[in-house]
Amino acid sequence: MKNSIPYAQGLRYRRIISDDLVLITELHNLTENFISRGYPPAIIEKQVNKILSLDRSILIQYKERTNTNINFTPFVLTFTNIFNNCGKNNIYNLLRNI
Fold first, then answer.
1. Distance (Å, whole) CA 42 – CA 63
2. Residue of 21, 26, 44, 69 with fewest CB within 10 Å of its CB?
3. CB 30 within 8 A of CB 10
4. What share of the chain is helix, strand, coil (3-state, %, to 5)?
């Protein structure tokens, strides 16, 4: 988790930001934020270096799905505190009782 969270966040930055100077500045800010939250600097530096080595043009290309045999329909909700894990509005209980 300590590797994947900074990497995933940095990867989003790499895909969104087209200007390398802006990217470097934002990755520096991201690094400072993770370090201030107690992440080991060596892990953050390793992930940032990995991100900087990636080619943005490849990252933003559309990728075809390899598995089209999906046997479910995603159920997407907007977050709200009413569907908390306890009480009568537990989303699992609400759906199960329909």
1. 32
2. 69
3. yes
4. 55, 0, 45
- The one-letter amino acid code at 30 reads L
The verdict on pTM exceeding 0.90 is: no
Picking from 62, 64, 67, 90, the residue whose alpha carbon sits closest to that of residue 77 is 90
- Separation of alpha carbons 24 and 22, rounded Å: 5
Name 15's Cβ contacts closer than 8 Å, sequence gap at least 6. Answer: 56, 59, 60
Successive 10-residue mean pLDDT values, the chain, 98 residues: 92 95 96 95 96 94 79 76 65 71
- Please give the pLDDT value at position 88: 65
Reported in sequence order, the residue ranges of 4-77 that DSSP labels E, i.e. its strands, are: none
Domain boundaries, the chain: 4-59
Nearest C-alpha neighbor of 11 from the set 51, 40, 42: 51
Rounded to the nearest angstrom, the gap between the alpha carbon of residue 84 and the centroid of all alpha carbons in its chain is 22
